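Subject: Dihydrolipoyl dehydrogenase

B.,
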Amino acid sequence: MAFIDIPVPDLGDIADAAVIEILVKPGDRINAEQSLITLESDKASMEVPSPKGGVVGEIRIKLGDRVGQGQVILTLDVEGAEASATAPAPPAPVAASAATPTAPPASTAAPTPPSPAPAQPKPGPAVDAPAETDCDVLVLGAGPGGYSAAFRAADLGLKVILVERYAELGGVCLNVGCIPSKALLHVAAVMDEVRHFDALGVSYGAPQLDLDKLRAHKNAVTGKLTGGLNGMAKARKVQVLRGYGTFIDAHHLQLEGTTGTGQDKNGETRTVSFKRCVIAAGSQAVHLPFLPEDPRIVDSTGALALPQVPKRMLVIGGGIIGLEMGSVYGALGTSIDVVEMSDGLMPGADRDLVQVWQKFNAKRFGRVLLGTKTVAAQATAEGIRVSFESAKAGEAAPEAGVYDLVLQAVGRTPNGRKIGADKVGLTVNERGFIPVDEQMRTNVPSLFAIGDIVGQPMLAHKATHEGHVAAEVIAGELLGDEALARSAFDARVIPSVAYTDPEIAWAGLTEEQAKAQGRAIKKGLFPWAASGRALANGRSEGFTKLLFDAETHRIVGGGIVGTHAGDLIGEVALAIEMGADEIDIGKTIHPHPTLTESVGLAAEAAHGTCTDLMPVRKR
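Prediction pasted inline below.
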């Protein structure tokens, strides 16, 4: 007899879990990959498989025990194997049950993805050598859209490979985008808030910055999330391969391996075969060609690294990313200038929302140069000297400035031309986007695409839902499930949020869009100066407004400016999706006193029944 110990494998972000089922007993003959026990934590339930076949000896655990990585589950008599003190690392636990598919609602034309070009795909070069790895679904890119597509496909019973160039899952959003920026924005908001507490009778000393600790906090937040993703990938048996992927043909991908914490290629290549592929390769920051190569000129990734706290900083681009990072550095003590080529900040949001932000931040920011182009930059010993000119002919150019740090935040460009699209006949438009239909199909039958790479808005929450649709359509095709095969991206609205201070959030139709369309609307606006919670918080500068169709009275849009606006906009998006009218929202009882109460009160204002505002004059 050759007995080995079978331990609990790595559970990812789960420290320990309860044993809720023991699936074998002493004397049972089992096969490799056969499940031994079922574990349950507050995050997931999962089955732990055996790494080898053999006969079960002694079971070392019992029902109700809490177990963690390395704890011995049982001993196993490995037939024909030499005695060994421990078993090789067992495979990752698998999800206890796949999500039960449900029929999606009848699809309508998706508002965001463009329709795919009708051109037929060109045949790619034939692949003579067998693939080193094969799968049902290959997902190219492990950002929020990519990992969501991979996990959903795995939950539906498909064999999945997830390809990511970074060392950790989560893509730009989790590693160098949404999540680390929010960790820093929270710190900035608290620092700024306590500065005003002296007027309330609570005094604090000046903040003492420890950049190393601040970076460590940011990295700990991202590490917890990326570690959780690794655990969920293992639990679903999603195989993760690291590297850059380019298409060979419609069913094969060449993978160039990457190493380290960045994206350096290690010279290793392999071929991956797939039945279907979901392209979730994302986007990258636009780099202005006239800016010199200098460590003092950074994109959002470089700014999030917190290389220093500069005295003077220029933000090129008055969009959400630039203003969020400006808020962080401004709270840390940096003097911020912003230059924007258009006539307004935060394009897409209604001007009345942005005006509240501008008034509140008038003293926080230095120069805000609207209608101004950045035309030149020179690296000097004193700093980066940046020159401007007016975007309007004949107007005087603003004075040049010298800055310790320059952030270029003028947008992002999709990675559609970096994946070998030409080799497979995949349509990529002139801007680098991949056209898709409402089922996320490209013009190549085996290829689907989601996220930033398919078009605006470039938002993680849009990509997540698109990823689910692609995975369900693919599962429907491969498994013969007609309900799944009918899945479609038919969202009525995709909310947007600027996590500045104050926050700005909006969903659906804006007032400016309604005017441009000539659409008759009715507006309900509730000022936070009348909100008990906003006044108690000392932040009554904001307001909530809702827009209703003048004929049907159904909500068509809404905007919020104020603290936690991003947390409130979800109710507005849900109301639009459900076709709620002003009475539905107004008569929904909201808890008092809260900021979310302002949504119901704005609906009452539109209906003319709000008793928390001055009476409306009768005409």
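The chain has four domains: 2-78, 135-284+414-486, 297-410, 495-607.

T.
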